[in-house]
Design brief:
By secondary structure, this protein is mainly alpha-helical. It has helices at residues 4-13, 18-24, 28-45, 52-77, 85-102, 110-130, 136-155, 165-172, 180-198, 200-210, 212-217, 222-248, 259-270, 281-300, 305-329, and strands spanning 160-161, 174-175, 178-179, 250-251.
Length: 332
């Protein structure tokens, strides 16, 4: 077929066509999964799932995962990983929450203090990885345990409540019907996209993940750039802690437990390589929404907490397996 219709068909299906470019997008799979699951949950729940209020509920619940997902995307792009994010949230909540409750921290300093504490915790991860040479998985596994242990020792069974309005507003307030936590998360995601795709720093991060030796040969300070991604992740854990504290109007030793699984699953499902060198902030955003939508839909269909965990674990395995397959079948 050589007429106009045939030419349009070739432009859509042929080499370099629209369909091929769409299939090549790193977040294509997660986008398809969102469309399919959205239709399934809407059909099962009889439109209960497909309401504006429910979508806002999903976004509010997923805001913490998106904030942390931005930092995790940075770390994974270098070829690393941070599994201590939930434990960092616990430490920030313990220190800032108790400071506010006991009166030695002015509420006006709550936000910068949370970010600073998180950044220090992230810097310790970066030091262990870049200076001591501990592999990222093991380094952050160690702090995952140590940070949570500190939080449990420091807080015990105590629950900090009655937080100041400035903190509660971060987790509960809305602007034009959209939760402040969602606005903050989206703003961080946009900034993260800009940094990764439009700055020299972002190109350095990608270069390190693609080939650390080659990056070092071009005089990129591999250790400093790599460590900085963990500082960013820590600072964002501080922001995420504020969102959780505000939403719950409290802080406890258990705060943040389990969020690291959601974050890692969302980032990998979104198309960021677990092996470094390729990242997609749009994919992270879609991956976070997919996880939030999946949990919300499962709850509405009556699936319990343990079923959600099983499916989340299987999703991580499937996403990594797909990346391995793509890597084996890719060029070179």
């Amino acid at each position: 077929m050589n007429g106009p219709a045939g030419g349009a068909r070739n432009r859509f299906l042929g080499a370099g066509g629209t369909a091929e470019r769409a299939l090549a997008l790193p977040f294509f799979n997660v986008a398809v999964a969102i469309v399919v699951l959205y239709a399934v949950f809407t059909a099962i729940t009889g439109e209960t799932f497909n309401t504006a209020n429910n979508q806002i509920t999903i976004m509010r619940a997923a805001a913490v995962f998106l904030i942390l997902g931005v930092g995790q995307t940075f770390a994974m792009t270098t070829g690393g990983i941070d599994i201590s994010t939930g434990s960092m949230i616990g430490v920030v909540g313990a220190i800032v929450g108790s400071g506010l409750e006991l009166g030695w921290m002015d509420p006006i300093y709550a936000i910068p203090s949370a970010i600073l504490v998180g950044a220090v915790l992230g810097a310790f991860n970066g030091f262990n990885i870049t200076v001591l040479g501990v592999p990222p998985l093991l380094a952050t596994l160690g702090t995952f345990v140590a940070y949570r242990g500190f939080t449990q020792y420091y807080m015990g069974v105590n629950l900090v409540t009655g937080l100041p309005d400035v903190v509660v507003a971060v987790g509960r307030a809305s602007v034009l019907g959209l939760p402040v936590s969602v606005i903050v998360a989206l703003a961080i995601a946009v900034l993260g996209w800009f940094v990764l795709n439009r700055t020299l720093y972002g190109r350095y991060i990608t270069a390190i993940g693609s080939n650390p030796s080659a990056a070092e040969a071009t005089r990129i300070n591999v250790k400093a750039i790599t460590a900085s991604t963990y500082v960013i992740q820590g600072a964002l854990a501080g922001v995420a802690a504020l969102v959780l504290m505000g939403r719950l109007d409290s802080a406890s030793a258990a705060m943040g437990e389990g969020v690291e699984l959601h974050v890692i699953a969302a980032v990998v499902l979104g198309g960021t390589y677990l092996f470094g060198g390729r990242s997609t902030m749009i994919g992270t955003l879609l991956g976070v929404y997919l996880i939030g939508m999946l949990e919300n839909g499962l709850i509405q269909t009556g699936a319990g907490f343990f079923v959600q965990r099983i499916i989340l674990g299987l999703l991580i395995i499937a996403a990594v397996a797909l990346q391995l397959q793509q890597r084996r079948s890719g060029p070179g």
